[in-house]
Amino acid sequence: MATPAKRIRLYAAAIAIMLVAVGSVTALAVYAGGSNSVTVDVSYDSKFTSILVGSDSTVADVLDELDITLDENDLVSPSLSNKVSGGMEISVKRVDVTHTQYIVPIECEMSYVADPTLFEGMSIVEDPGERGEIAETFTMVKIDGTFASAAITKNEVISEGHGGVIRYGTRPVSEMHSFYDAPAYKVEGSSDGGMITEADGTTYEYDYTIDMRATAYTTERQVNKITASGAVAQPGIVAVHSSVLPMGTEVYIVAPDGSWSYGKAVVGDRGVLGKVIDLYFNYWDDCVYFGARDAVVYVLK
């Protein structure tokens, strides 16, 4: 049979009062505790609760009484091991942590090497290098659904990559070939024939003209320097498709507006299909400078 003191504690354990307010729920729960009970306030999951517990209870006991479960990142204040006291406010905040990984490139460093075969102001990318990669882990934290912080929490090198090489020219521009200065010449005749006279009096009789696209090529830094005709590649040898001009044809090549002149040349190499004439230059830089241009080709007799 229960003693009077035990019966009093059992009666106290059965008391529960619920107060309902507009927009929120406030609850007052009374649990067994007798004269050594204290009231603590608990806020969690957008709720607020007051509970009467024994004075020897811990914060963990209070959360257990209210069936509040915690995830590993959740924040509880005061800590779970703290003993409760009258008027204590216990706060439970839900913490959501997300990790996102991004791949970030590591730019490669370029080395610059002087090249006396290139003209000043020109450069060649000999080795573009290879970028490395870093895996960055981006961590974002939300507390009770509100953004709290964000930071890069981990860097891991996936690949180192390697640097590249750029060669830059040191050869004086004054050594460029004279065709850039458009040597003087005079043409008398029409597209159906006439005479070309150079400044020194040299004359060339031509049969007809062809409007063509002039490109440039070189054998610089190449082992094979022999053309399709068997001659060594050199200025004055040009390449044209045989359907346009047969091998051995002599030509005189100038700009349509007279701004440059390649001069007299012979078809000594095979070219691409179409009205394209490939002009030989000794240096790669000259080819780059020349590029591709419109040209008038005088077919000599």
What this model shows, in words?
The chain has 301 residues and is mainly β. 8% of the residues lie in helices and 52% in strands. It has helices at 4-13, 59-65, 284-290; strands at residues 16-21, 24-30, 37-44, 47-54, 75-77, 89-93, 95-106, 110-119, 123-127, 132-143, 146-159, 164-171, 185-190, 193-198, 203-217, 237-240, 250-254, 261-270, 276-280, 293-300. 14% of the residues are buried.
Describe this structure in a few short sentences.
Helices cover 8% and strands 52% of the residues. It is mainly β and 301 residues long.
Strand content: over 45%
Number of domains: 3
Unreliable segments (pLDDT under 50, ≥5 consecutive)? Answer: 1-34
Q: What is the CA-atom radius of gyration, in angstroms?
A: 45 Å
Q: Spatial order of the strands in the main sheet?
A: 1-2-4-3-6-5
Q: CATH superfamily name of the largest domain?
A: RlpA-like domain
- Please tally the helical runs, counting DSSP H or I stretches of 4 or more residues: 3
Order of helices and strands: HEEEEHEEEEEEEEEEEEEEEHE
Please summarize the sheet with the most strands.
6 strands, mixed
Supply the CATH class of the largest domain.
Mainly Beta
Helix content: under 10%
The structure class reads mainly beta
Shape: rod-shaped
Number of strands: 20
CATH topology of the largest domain: Barwin-like endoglucanases
Mean pLDDT: 84
Report the span from N to C terminus.
138 Å
Supply the key terms.
single chain, 301 residues, mainly beta, Ubiquitin-like (UB roll), Resuscitation-promoting factor rpfb fold, Barwin-like endoglucanases, 3 domains, six-stranded mixed β-sheet, six-stranded mixed beta barrel, 3 helices, 20 strands, 8% helix, rod-shaped, disordered N terminus
